[in-house]
Amino acid sequence: MALKPENPIEKAATAWVIATDRGLSTEESETLDRWLAQDVRHRGAFVRAQAIWSEAIGDAPPAAQPPLPRAPWVTRRRILIGGGLAAAAAGTGLILARPPSYETERGETRRLALADGTSALLNTASRMVVRFSAQRRAVELAYGEAWFQVARDPARPFIVDAGGLRIGAVGTAFSVKMVAMAIEVIVTEGVVALAAAGGRSRRVSEGQRAAVSASGEIELGDPGAEALARHLAWREGLVMFDGETLAQAIAEINRYNRRQIVIAPRLRDIRMVGVFRTGDVEGFADAVTRIAAAPMRLDGDRILLGL
């Protein structure tokens, strides 16, 4: 898509949108404010250029995330948290490109080397969008789960937006998991800062796990090394259970497989202990039949237990 300013005001507005993408200094922000205040046409041109740009890259903010710095007169969508855009201004045109995005299918994991040296591992059925600029490193986790080993760069914080939660780090390692309306953050190295809905914030240190509700409530815990290893076993292609209910265990194993397990209600509260390959849904189902003494039968893409 091309943004083609037709007059000097439109061209100036386009230039300010580009500058906003890379990040404005305090002096530049003040200059932009003065330019916007000079003429109502300036404000209109800026908003139009901003809207075209945002539509071109399909950028939409996570719900209830803390607002980024903005000019005092304008209420707007988030403008391009970072780079990842290929933008080339030539004469009267600006060619826009979408930021890179990465996605996994059910049962797939994907290891990524990001442009800043950060390593990322994307779990099953997940999607993230990367927007890096000279000022910040931003990742939006649209859904699913990811683990990050963040390259240290104090001048450019590493920010992950997940739902209504913002996670900030410099050089650290942590995972983010979005399931239903809840978000889980586990820190395996360093410290991260959480900013949730309603202005709530917490720091999460190495070895800690934070559970964030849809309303922004943050519950912080120290589950211990063994529990953290179970939570992160997916990085090795495993799921580990130690007393979870059968309903919880099946919900987890079903995340990785197209063939889904369905159980009789009477079996839901049976406790499960064991280690399984994420893709071995048949082996998991066979173990359940022995533990619960429940019959198993196939029904298309479903494995029925006790039904």
TrEMBL record:
<dbReference type="Pfam" id="PF16220">
    <property type="entry name" value="DUF4880"/>
</dbReference>
<dbReference type="GO" id="GO:0016989">
    <property type="term" value="F:sigma factor antagonist activity"/>
</dbReference>
<dbReference type="InterPro" id="IPR012373">
    <property type="entry name" value="Ferrdict_sens_TM"/>
</dbReference>
<dbReference type="InterPro" id="IPR032623">
    <property type="entry name" value="FecR_N"/>
</dbReference>
<dbReference type="InterPro" id="IPR006860">
    <property type="entry name" value="FecR"/>
</dbReference>
<dbReference type="Pfam" id="PF04773">
    <property type="entry name" value="FecR"/>
</dbReference>
<feature type="domain" description="FecR protein">
    <location>
        <begin position="102"/>
        <end position="192"/>
    </location>
</feature>
<protein>
    <recommendedName>
        <fullName>FecR protein domain-containing protein</fullName>
    </recommendedName>
</protein>
<feature type="domain" description="FecR N-terminal">
    <location>
        <begin position="12"/>
        <end position="51"/>
    </location>
</feature>
